[in-house]
Amino acid sequence: MNTENNYPIKKVNIICAKGAIEDVYATLVMGNGAVMEGIETNIFFTFFGLDAIVKTRMNKLHTAVVGNSALRLPGGLRMPTLLGIIPGMESFISWMMMREMEKLDIPPVGEFMDLITAGGGKIYACKLAMDMFKFKPEDLCEHVSGVLTIGEFYAHAGGEGSQIIFT
Question: Which domains are present in the chain?
Answer without folding.
Answer: 1-59+108-167 (3.40.1260.10), 60-107 (no CATH)
